[in-house]
Amino acid sequence: MTTMSVVEMDPLIESLYYWSDIIGVLLMGMIGGTMARQRGYDIVGFFFIAMFSSLGGGMIRDVLINRGTVAAMSQPEYLYLAFTGAIIARFVYFKGKTWDYVQSHGDAVVSALWASTGALKAIAYGLPLIPCIMMGVFTATGGSMIRDIAMGREPAVFGDNTPTVIPAVACALVVLGADSAGYLAWGIILGPIVSFVMTMLGIWAGWRVPARQEWAPVNDTAAYVMVMARKAESKGRAVGRRLEPTKLRSWRHNQMEKALQRRIEREVRAGKRRAEAALDANEFLDSFNEEVAEMSEMIEPATAETETSDFGVDLSGDSYETPSADEPSPRELLDRILADDQLTDELVERLMRRYEKRDD
């Protein structure tokens, strides 16, 4: 692609470029002046807001391209038109539904035209694909961003508003595609039409670019993997318990029976009938045998939920430390308890209370 200035282009393209800029500057000057009136600014505010609205995007573009003087400074008619728009807005109070309609549609037209001229100027100076698109976007939206910042507002292009950047990107792509095909003049015509239609769809159909703060697919995927790992770990423990030696399971069962017998004797001494105490103990033991696979779960800390609900980044690194080799597993802890009669009695008491509450 041959690098050339805008004025060295085909006369038709040059004319389209020039009039797109001229119309946009005047209209955006009027829109900026009207917004200054709504904020209660004086005539100085009118001029500044009109200048930011109508020339800010082009200034950003020309500064980034860095080829010669900024167009708004080297061609004073741009400033004259921006200030003319401010003066018109100062003497004519544009308001009501009609003006809102004109403003929204006029803004869409101007943004479409400027996206085209921004991409065109980048093409003229031989910039690559992505910078050409950026110049179209900056030209179309840069003025409104500077205006909003100067007025103390969040730039509208950042929020959940009518899309302006996406139509500008589409326009720039059409212009670039037409240039590659050798039909640049058609691209300058079709690009703004595509951009305008997309912006109107946003206005008429309520199309918005979503802005969900909680959307984080990496975090969601990691949390899901952790949940699945937790389930796999639980299944593995269940299989391990089924594969435990029969002798070990029998020892645990005998230890529980001895503890229950001691409890029966204590209840008899406390005045309870032996048959009734034995019946309660047998019912508990039957239930315990059915749920023995879950005994380890009763002892383990209930950490599964907290480990998966707040997935994030551990800056201190504590969560990445490996567990101590001396820390006993749940089944080892259970065996230690059953090896001590006093601890076993306390375990039985707690399980019996839990069993009785469940029956209630």
UniProtKB/TrEMBL annotation:
Q: Which UniProt keywords apply?
A: Cell membrane, Membrane, Transmembrane, Transmembrane helix
Domain Glycine transporter: residue ranges: 18-92, 107-177
Membrane topology per the entry is:
Multi-pass membrane protein
Question: Where is this chain primarily localised?
Answer: membrane
Q: Does the keyword Protease apply?
A: no
Which domain of life does the protein's organism represent?
Bacteria
One GO cellular component term, please give it.
plasma membrane
Q: Where in the cell is it found?
A: Cell membrane
- Give one Pfam family: Gly_transporter
Annotated stretches, region: Disordered: 303-333
Q: Where are the transmembrane segments?
A: 12-31, 43-65, 77-94, 122-146, 158-178, 184-207
Similarity comment: Belongs to the UPF0126 family.
Name of the protein in its database record:
Trimeric intracellular cation channel family protein
